[in-house]
Specification:
- 18% of the residues lie in helices and 41% in strands.
- It is of the alpha+beta class and 376 residues long.
- It is elongated.
């Protein structure tokens, strides 16, 4: 793209300089196209005149003029009288192998010569790898490479940027099949299948790795105003990418931050929430993907009121006050009952006051005996 832009800039500069000197100028853009079959390719040709009426531009291939009649090409001329210029666009529709070659753009009377562009198209091949990419220790893993749906075309296999390991467990079988026998965790990685055609490479790759494990707490509890922390960790290979979301919500608030770190063989992703609010209560979900497998884990955030720590103390104080009140009332009631009983006892013990003729009885009852005897 930079080369094309630079070329266009040079052409514009050449045109400006030539036009300033009173010369007629033709230039084309881009000078060439390279791409797969079946695409449309467009070239632009521009003529700027120093003076005189605007002529037409002519597109040719193999000295034969190109027109719109066949449907294979689309030619559009756009004159601009104000700038005394004309622009012509040639589009090659659904380019195929026989469209390769040179195309010429020239002034209709040919006095400026021809300006040539080239088109190079090639067959585009679809390369695809099929097979199970989840690595299970001891279970043979098979990958098959297909080119345009066929597994009979010769291909090459690589792991990462290197050839396949020199290991008897790696077996190349018929139909472009790669088998890894009794795989181990060290066999995880990126495997590439490459097909060569017309000096061009067509490739596909796939990532092989172990089942994805993802762990974290089920719930966390914080008080309003504190900084909440959520963590998800994984030991799987290749290392996963972990993203965070909130159930029925978003994390676009500036209070949210994420951190990532490796701790030994464990990859840890952390979501931080600054200044927890009651409205932040809910489920927070971490999703991990390593190109082989995907896993999710949910952490529930519980939010406590700022005064939550005081409620137990207030409850205890209330219980103490109620208990003191009950004891006080009980004591009052008990004292009132005792006063009434003392009065009754005093009345019962008070001596009986008799008249003048009454005698006080002797303690031994002899007075009563004497009174009966005298009466008799």
């Amino acid at each position: 793209m930079r080369i094309l832009a630079f070329s266009a800039a040079i052409l514009v500069a050449v045109f400006s300089l030539a036009n300033a000197q009173g010369e007629d100028v033709v230039f084309v853009q881009p000078p060439s196209h390279t791409g797969p079959y079946g695409e449309d390719y467009t070239f632009v040709c521009k003529l700027d005149l120093s003076a005189g009426p605007l002529p037409s531009l002519v597109w040719q291939r193999n000295s034969a003029e190109i027109s719109n009649e066949s449907g294979q090409y689309i030619v559009v001329h756009t004159p601009n009288a104000a700038n005394n210029s004309v622009v012509s666009r040639l589009t090659i529709v659904d380019a195929q192998a026989d469209d390769k070659g040179a195309y010429d753009c020239s002034h209709e009377n040919g006095n400026l010569g021809a300006f040539t562009i080239t088109l190079d198209v090639y067959q585009d091949y679809e390369v695809k790898i099929e097979g199970d990419t989840v690595l299970e220790e001891g279970v043979d893993l098979t990958l098959t490479c297909k080119v345009d749906g066929s597994a009979t075309t010769e291909v090459t296999w690589t792991k990462g940027s290197d050839d396949l390991p020199d290991d008897d467990r790696y077996v190349l079988k018929a139909n472009n099949t790669l088998m890894i026998m009794e795989p181990v965790l060290g066999d995880a990685g990126v495997y590439t299948c490459t097909y060569m055609a017309n000096n061009m490479e067509f490739a596909a790759n796939v990532t092989v790795g172990e089942p994805l494990d993802l762990t974290g707490l089920k719930s966390v509890k914080y008080t309003e105003g504190e900084r909440a922390r959520f963590e998800c960790s994984s030991t799987s290979k290749p290392k996963p990418t972990i993203t965070w979301t909130k159930e029925n919500g978003t994390l676009d608030d500036e209070r949210f931050e994420t951190e990532e770190k490796m701790k030994g063989q464990t990859f840890i992703s952390t979501l931080l929430l600054i200044g927890v609010k009651m409205s932040d209560r809910g489920n927070y979900i971490c999703t991990a993907n390593n190109g082989v497998d995907e896993a999710t884990h949910t952490i529930f955030l519980r939010v406590r009121d700022r005064l939550a720590a005081l409620w137990p103390f207030i409850g205890i104080m209330a219980e103490v006050i109620i208990l003191i009140a009950i004891i006080f009332i009980h004591e009052k009631c008990t004292q009132g009952g005792d006063v009434g009983d003392d009065d009754e006892d005093d009345e019962a013990m008070e001596p009986i006051k008799g008249g003048a003729g009454d005698e006080k009885p002797n303690s031994d009852g002899e007075g009563d005996v004497r009174m009966r005897a005298s009466k008799e």
